[in-house]
Write a structure and sequence with these properties.
single chain, 261 residues, alpha/beta, Rossmann fold, six-stranded mixed beta sheet, four-stranded antiparallel beta sheet, 10 strands, globular
């Protein structure tokens, strides 16, 4: 289990003249992620969702608070320990094309994490790449192609496959369908749910689309101005939510507004 406990993240911008300015990106957030469970994180742009994602993926140092993995504090662990731990926690980025190196074949992109962690022989890596690409609904013919030869939806499937190459337990999905059309986004969500059912991955599913978050999540956390203002089970969320900001998000979802209110 990955847990953020009262974490705080601020950015300090120093100026040549005058005092430094401080941006409070994440403010005293507590959130738990478990294997086999999807936690939806919803909020408007600039609310701190992506910063929280990077902190929980150990890509950004936190200013205060702690991160724990299976109840062990990992806030101040060594570089080698953090490197190994990152095998368990993978982040999938928003833009499926920008996240892929256009100069590498899909096979090389998929095997790159295995080279980084010195996992397996060359043949082992190639075999695992074939398994991963088929697991996300593509085929081995795609391995010799380059990202520019694929659609956005196919590129996002490659990003998911790359995240799976080192057998993580937690996947942090940062707005991974926002750059896709509705139909393709729905296919990606279906893929994530199928993978979770087969392999028990835990997801932090980040989106500004509350309707989609409600469809895929077991629990939902609402983020507003760097704080999590409400966390509830997705079942009955639209009836039980209390915070004014959450109610405003619900009111903006047409189907919920017409059927539930």
């Amino acid at each position: 289990m990955l847990a953020a406990k009262h974490i705080h993240k601020q950015y300090i911008q120093r100026h040549w003249f005058g005092p430094s300015s401080v941006t409070e990106a994440v403010n005293k957030v507590t959130l738990e992620l478990r294997a086999g469970e999807t936690v939806g994180l919803v909020g408007e742009s600039g609310s701190g969702k992506s910063t929280l994602a990077r902190c929980m993926a150990m890509l950004e140092p936190i200013t205060e608070g702690s991160l724990t993995w299976n109840d062990k504090d990992i806030t101040q662990i060594s570089f080698e320990e953090s490197r190994e731990l990152r095998r368990n926690i993978q982040l999938i980025f928003q833009d499926p094309i920008d996240a892929l190196n256009p100069r590498l074949t899909i096979e090389r992109i998929l095997t790159e994490p295995l080279y980084h962690f010195a996992i397996g022989t060359l043949q082992d890596r190639k075999h695992k790449a074939r398994q991963a690409i088929e697991r996300v609904g593509l085929n081995s013919d795609h391995l010799s192609r380059y990202p520019t030869e694929l659609s956005r939806g196919q590129c996002q499937r490659v990003n998911i496959a790359r995240a799976l190459m080192i057998d993580p337990q937690i996947l942090i999905c940062d707005e991974i369908i926002s750059a896709l059309d509705v139909s393709t986004g729905a296919q990606i969500v279906r893929l994530l749910l199928d993978l979770q059912q087969q392999f028990g991955y835990g997801y932090l599913f980040i989106s500004h689309d509350l309707a989609r978050v409600m469809q895929v999540s077991h629990r939902i956390a609402v983020m507003y101005k760097g704080e999590i203002v409400e966390t509830r089970a997705s079942s009955g969320f639209h009836l039980e939510a209390e915070h004014p900001y959450t109610r405003s998000l619900l009111a903006a979802v047409p189907k919920l507004r017409s059927s539930a209110f």
